[in-house]
Amino acid sequence: MAEPLSAQTTTTAPDTATAATPSLGARTMRRMLAAFTYRDFRVQWIGACTSSIGTWMQIVAQNWLVVSLTNSPFFLGLDAFLQQLPIILFSLIGGVFADRYDRRRTLMMSQVIQMSTSGALALLMYFRAVQIWQILALSFVTGCAQSFGGPAYNSLIPSLVDKKDLPNAVALNSIQFNVARVLGPLLFGLTLSAFRHWGYSEPQAMNACFLLNSLSFLVVINTLMMLRVKHIPPAKSGRIGEELRSGLSYVRHHANLAAFIVLAAATTFLGFALLTFLPIFAQKIFHEGADTYSHLMAFSGAGSIVGALIVAWLGKFPKMGWTALVVQAVYGLLIIAFAVSRVLWVSDILLFFTGVTLMVVFSTVTSLVQLIAPNEMRGRVMSIYMLAFRGGMPLGSLVSGWLATYLGAPLVIGINGLLLIAVAGYFLARSHGVREA
Which end of the chain has fewer CB atoms surrounding its CB within 10 Å, N or C? Predict the structure, then answer.
């Protein structure tokens, strides 16, 4: 069994010195990349980015495979739901594990399981035995691994940097995720084109994506082994149920934390169906194939990188909560515009700006929750936050997928945009501690 992990962690000091007379450009870059001055954060970022690129290759390939097998928006939503369902079921227990046990070892086990599911899908594709129920089952197992790895990962980041650089670290962590959102779909498109050029079939190209994703987990496992962060057992630990209840009680008695968690759930429930339905837009609205789908994903990811860079540059700033709410309302307007657009280049631009706005909201809200949560409760608080944030995705995808079967994807996305504006308006009017954060 892994050794217990203390709420108290040792932060690695920055290992670069400030230049005597830096230029404006150098000061801007230093401010934007402040968390990279910490060796452990750099190491973890590189490993996570490599693995995320492979994961996004698989997400795009798997979504296209589901559409190819079923031609159904419902199964797209169901696949997303089953991958995220374990987040709802097990994240709170994962948060207790993150506060009690070695976070690195928990993360390593999570990566090994995800590597195995990707490898299993690659084997099924190789032997031409893949069926939709197998894809759904593997998605569920992957989600189980993420339900324990996610709280451990989110709890580990504040241990790698000083508190003043935490918003920057959260934003840079979002950047690696969204660099992967750009490169993963592009690499899927390039792999597809290359395999066609070499005379191979589309399923063989998708199989290569699954295999590459499986191999990418070796990089993040290696970087986890390289981290120098120290762990000290907690002063005391009760039963898992008791610790879980104490985490829920802490959130319940801190109104602003509870409000941020409700906001996160509403945002992901309504806002992430856009990405789930992109294969439908590529196929049904623009009458194009997998290449168009991959470049739609790339535009969204590129916007997210820009949004994360903006938050990284801003760092900790006044009225973070108010800013997140206003930007969320803008995001709602943008996805309404995307829903009605029938011109591909216009939709590309709109997707870019949806990526910018969504990432500003996500990074800002996550930073505020990380800053509010005390270190000894962070694993449990972040698991509750993840339950809301990640749990909203599958429920939203499932409901939106079911509605899209009857109403069509564009109309459902437009309705979601209107509801996002309404949620932002409610918190701007009533606040509950969000507007003043």
Answer: N
